[in-house]
Structures are given as C-alpha cells and as structure tokens.
Amino acid sequence: MEPITTGMQGAAVEDVQSRLLQLGYTIDDAEVVDKRFGTTTEQTVSTFRLDSGLAAGHAVDIPCWSALVDASYKLGDRTLYLRMPNFHGADVQALQRALNVLGFACGEDDGYFGPHTEAALQQFQENVGLFADGMAFQDTYAYINRLHHVWEGKPSVTEAESRIGFARAANVLDPDVRPRATKEIGPMIAMIKTLIEQGHAYAADNGDVYFAVRSDPNYGQVSGRNIDDLMVGARIEENEDKNDPLDFALWKAAKPGEPSWPSPWGEGRPGWHTECAAMVHRYLGTPIDIHGGGSDLAFPHHENECAQATCAWHQGFSNTWMHTGMLLVDGEKMSKSLGNFFTLAEVLEQHSAAALRLLMLQTSYRSPLDFSWERLDGAENSLTRIAGTVENLRWAANHATADADEAASEAFAAKAAEARAAFKECMDDDFNTAGAMGAVFGFVTECNQYLEQAGDAADKAAALAAADTLVELLDTFGVELPEPKVELPLGLLGVAAGLVAYTGDDVDEAAAKILEARAEARAAKNWDLADAIRDQLKDLGLTIEDTAAGTRIKSL
Predict the structure, then answer these.
(1) Which residue, 326, 293, 345, is CA-closest to 129?
(2) Which of 13, 188, 243, 355 could be joined to 270 by an S-S link, Cβ 3.0–4.6 Å?
(3) In a domain, 359, yes or no
C-alpha cells in the first residue's frame, strides 16, 4: 500500500482517523469532518507510532497500518487460536489479561497468541465446563465477559507457573511452592527406607511396603481414636500380605496400566499419605505450625501422615490441626447427582469474591457451611451496608458544618477501640471468624447511631478513624468493600439546566443547585417539582439521600 501522509484527503484518511479516535487519541474536529490528513492528524500518527514501538515518522505505512488494525480489535471481534503467524492485537492482550487475573497464567500479556496463551485458555475452558480446544469462540468470550467484574481493571499476573484457576479471582493468596508428587518420588522413597530401617515399616513379598501401625505408640492422637477400638465394627480389607489389618501402604507394587517408578522394592507408586508427608518435610520442615483440611481427612489421611512423619524424623508433624466442616447446599451434601453442585466460576459469575468470603466467615470453620444463593445475596447486601457506612463516615467527616461534641467524640472513639479488641479476642479464640464478624457488624451499628446523633457536627478525626477501622478489620480477612460510585454523570448538567436554569459546567455545583431547589420545593410543599427532580435523577441512575449530616445525590 502507498503510505497515507500529510495533505491527503478521503476515505483512507477517514479510516485512519476513525481508528485513532477509537483508541482514545485526539484529532482536530475540522480535519475529521474534511477527512483531511492535517497537522493534528500528523501529530497523532507520530504519537501512535512511538506508542506502538515503530520507527519515528508521521506517515501511515504498512507497519503502522498493521499496528492500527491490531490495536482496533476488541475482545470477541474474531476467533482466536494458535496459528502461524500468531494472532496479535488488543483483543489478544485483553484475553491474556483476563486469563492472568483469573489465575490461568499465560505469561506476559504482550498481545501475541502463543503456546502459553493456548494452554491457559484450555485450562480456563476446562474449568468452566467448555470444550477445551484452546480456541476462543463466542462461548468462551461469553464466560469471560460474565466474569468481567472479577478481572477488569485488575493487574495482570505474569508468573508462568501460576496456574491456580479461580483461586486468585476469589482473592486467595498464591502459594510460594507448588510441589508435584510425580516430581518428588526420590524423597518419598528415602522416607520409606528410613521407616524400614527403624522398624516402623516392612516390605511384603508382593512388592508392597506397609507401615506398622502398632509400632507408633501415639497412633490415633490426631483423630482422637483408640487403636484397639479401630477393629471394632471396622470394615478392613483382608490382605494376607499385611502383618496387621490396620497397617497401611507406603508403597504399592505396580499394576498393569498404572503409572509406576523404580524403587528398591520393584516398580510401583507411593501411597497418598506418604506423598503429602514427604513433600511437607522437604519444603517446610517439621513440625509445621498449622495443618488444615476437611474433617473427613482427619482419619485416616492426617492420622497416617502424622504417624509416618513423626516415626521417620522423631519430631512432631504439626503443632496445630485445623479441620473444617463439610460444605452443604440448602442443608444437603453437595453432590453432582443431586444437581446442587456449583463451581467457583459459577458463583463468581453472579457474586463478588468478597461476598463469598463474608458468607464463609460467618460460620465457624469447624462447623458445616450451608451454602445457598439466598445467603450469598444476604452477604452481598451486608457488604453494601458496610461500604455505605464507610462512605457516610467519610462524607460526614468532610462536610461537617458545626462543632463536634467532645464527649460524644471520645465515646465514639472508644467504641472503635472496643471493636478492635473484640475482633482480636475472637480471632485468638480458635479463629472464631463468626464472632469477629459479629464485632464488625456491631461496630457498623455504632457508627450509624453516631452519625444519626451527630448530624452535621460529626468529629472529623473520629469519623475517619472509624471508617479506617472497618476497612482494616475486613482487610484482615481479604474482604474488599465495593467501591462507591462517587462520580456524578455529565447528564446532571442538563437536568440542572432544565429544572433550575443552571448554565455552568461544574457537575458538583449543578448537584448543589438541584438539592437547593428540592429543599425549597419541599418547604413550599411543591411536590410536583420535588417529584420531577426525583424522577429525572432516577433516569440518570441517581437518587437523593437524606442523612443526619446532610443531603446528597448518589448512585442508586
């Protein structure tokens, strides 16, 4: 193609200008109307070339045109897949950014659809129940768009090994190490050899290796079970290769079709309990501070982990065991067969990660958690309520027009200190998150009562400190409050012009004039005008909120 450059006019120039404007660049209106490659178009093209890493210049040549086209693609405009040459563009970059934030790492979001992007896309598709072909069709885009509130505007993650699915979207911290059992066979074999040498394990004739349960005098301490009671009513598989029916496998001889590895006892694979114990010891050392898991894992998994680890290395395995209650759905066990099985992706489509966290925090970790969409709705409403209180505290602090009552301020500040103390006391009591959240909700009530009583004489320091306290306590749990929509739309200028003949261009000033007019209308019992103000604001997604500290316009 011939370069498009200064002085040219017509459809080609119009296309260039349209793409640049779409990307957020500025061009003089007269040049756009005339479809003329003038001074501002030239300057904008030069800026775009620099922004795109192209050679300096002001002409739209083939490299510049290709970059313009690539930058113009939006997510969903075309089907993306791995090919040569690679797809490149803003839509690829948006896809990569979404995948990275959601926890399906594809490396740097550089806008090139390569093998890492394909692999991450396949993992995402598999996670949400789509056919994992690594091709981004409309069904994939639909899922990503439904989850836009989770990834949009958040920073990308570039660690190529960070593939933890939707955990990151749920605001779960990334682990420092992700060991894989298949890469740790050596340490597992070494652990088993140590147990045999110390008389805690034995190799059977069939190639299996078993742990001798009765060699550990402390067996049963994790689950609180007595070894002599385990035989009573127990359903234990008969195995003549074992010395004792309670003994469990550390190494299983290979069976046809199973993956296997070489060992001193022949081809085989490690037992589940052995895998976990060996990897904990290698990467964390023993004893560790906390070992967690579901209550159904206390026996036999955690019990067997602890037995072989303490016998092998002669020190405790975990200082604290934390076993969580089961997850129920509407009072029933979650099960695919019952049709009450939900994935994290499905939950995050409809609700924020913060609401899900809040729902879980309101039940002791040791107790069963009964999930329902209604309870999740309630958690979302609670978040909105807390966020509203924080917003009201900060607004009242910055809009106080009278002197604060010193005694009331001191009493309110003391309530904040009491809330912090109660929160800490609950957390020190077996991680009592339900009690800690009770302290938070109680303080929210105290805050609202203070604002009601203080009116326009709220103490700035006390109000801001209270807001910070609520945010800080929730941040301890990784709960992010929804951001209040504080920016008023430009459409408010038109409303103010029509209702109160406002001719300025300051949105905040327009809002103040509208509130003055409403107050005057209500005082004069001019309900038609008051209703007209309310209706026109509603059309803009706004409402008027009357508080003790004053009246304001805010988002619905």
Answers:
(1) 345
(2) 188
(3) no
Average pLDDT over the chain, rounded to an integer: 86
Instruction: Express each pLDDT in 152-182 by its tens digit.
Output: 766 665 444 445 667 767 778 777 887 888 8
Query: Peptide bond before 256: cis, by omega within 30 degrees of 0?
Result: no
The pLDDT score that the predictor gives to residue 486 is 55
Residues 155 and 206 placed together within one structural domain of the fold: no
Reported residue count of the chain is 556
**Which residues in 92-205 belong to E strands, given as ranges?**
201-203
HSE-up of residue 210 (Cα within 13 Å, Cβ side): 17
Q: Tell me: the pLDDT tens digits for 328-387?
A: 888 887 777 777 778 777 888 888 889 999 999 999 999 999 998 999 999 999 998 999
- Ramachandran angles phi, psi of 394, nearest 5°: -70, -35
216 and 318 share one domain: yes
Name the nearest CA neighbour of 214 among 237, 252, 245, 250: 245
Q: Residue 129: which pLDDT band, with cuts at 50, 70 and 90?
A: confident
- Do 110 and 206 fall into the same domain? no
Q: Is the pLDDT of residue 233 over 50?
A: no
Distances in whole angstroms, Cα of residue 92 to Cα of each of 21, 105, 255, 412, 443: 20, 14, 45, 52, 46
**For the chain, how many structural domains are there in total?**
5
CATH code of the domain containing 245: 3.40.50.620
Give me the domain span that covers residue 388. Answer: 373-476
My answer on whether 319 and 255 are in the same domain is: yes
Angstrom distance (rounded) from CA 124 to CA 130: 8
Q: What pLDDT does residue 518 have?
A: 84
Question: What contacts 513, CB < 8 A, 6 or more positions away?
Answer: 496, 500, 502
Question: Residue 555's pLDDT is what?
Answer: 67
CATH number for the domain that contains residue 128: 1.10.101.10
In a domain, 171, yes or no: no
Residue pair 162/176 in contact by the 8 Å Cβ criterion: no
Question: Which one, of 338, 348, 546, 362, lies nearest residue 452 by Cα?
Answer: 546
Question: Can you say how many angstroms the Cα of residue 327 is from the centroid of all Cα atoms in its chain?
Answer: 20
Given the structure tokens 């660049």, which residue do they identify?
25
Please give the model's pTM, rounded to 2 decimal places.
Answer: 0.66
Instruction: Decide: 383 and 352 in contact? Cβ < 8 Å.
Output: yes
Q: Are residues 305 and 415 in the same domain?
A: no
Nearest Cα neighbor of 113 from 159, 150, 145, 75 is: 75
